[in-house]
Specification:
Chain lengths: 115, 112
């Protein structure tokens, strides 16, 4: 099956710093990638939809200046958490669509802890 | 907007059958997914239904009725490793904006 690689899997950072998370589709071109965050014992909340070569579409309540998304190529999308705060600590997961009428393939997730 | 409902928790016995229901409301329905997620891990794909009917894949089957906005995931011959959260997700295509929205998930507990 298709593979989506997300890096890093775990990161600890200090308050006020920025963290970049990468999401790569290894064996297919992903025109659309999604970024989700998941708090403990809760479901995945869509943060934004990232389309290659265009600006990301953010869900209501998600600050686009805080969560910077770049989808520079058909195989790479990045999420940068800027000026991180402890409340940004969460599990961040990306997924990629290979095309229409196919499932979304998920990365391994990134557990971010802000201290 | 979208609205996806599924039970919060269910309990079943090893070897038995369990059905997890999902109802949804969305204006641009373009398919329904079921994912399995173990604690601390990323979701893994189980099924994808676009047309009405039942799709069987080993011990797991998924059913869709678009007119009723309803789907279920059927798990047979339950094993202890099936203890996990099961996420219903709807693909919503509106104005060329393609999104996948998840329900809150159903935590399934398997008893020996």
């Amino acid at each position: 099956g298709a593979v989506v690689s997300q890096h890093p899997s775990r990161v600890i950072c200090k308050s006020g710093t920025s963290v970049k998370i990468e999401c790569r589709s290894l064996d297919f071109q992903a025109t659309t990638m999604f970024w989700y965050r998941q708090f403990p014992k809760q479901s995945l909340m869509l943060m934004a939809t990232s389309n290659e070569g265009s600006k990301a579409t953010y869900e209501q309540g998600v600050e686009k200046d805080k969560f910077l998304i770049n989808h520079a190529s058909l195989t790479l999308s990045t999420l940068t958490v800027t000026s991180a705060h402890p409340e940004d600590s969460s599990f961040y997961i990306c997924s990629a669509l290979r095309g229409t009428n196919t499932e979304a393939f998920f990365g391994q997730g990134t557990r971010l802890t802000v201290v | 907007g979208q609205n996806i409902d599924q039970p919060t928790e269910m309990t079943a016995t090893e070897g038995a059958i369990v059905q997890i229901n999902c109802t949804y409301q969305t204006s641009g329905f373009n398919g329904l997914f079921w994912y399995q997620q173990h604690a601390g891990e990323a979701p893994t794909f189980l099924s994808y239904n676009v047309l009405d009917g039942l799709e069987e894949k080993g011990r797991f089957s998924s059913f869709l009725s678009r007119s009723k906005g309803y789907s279920y995931l059927l798990l047979k011959e339950l094993q202890m490793k099936d203890s996990a959260s099961y996420l219903c997700a709807v693909r919503d295509l509106k104005n060329r904006d393609d999104k996948i929205i998840f329900g809150k998930g159903t935590r399934l507990h398997i008893l020996p």
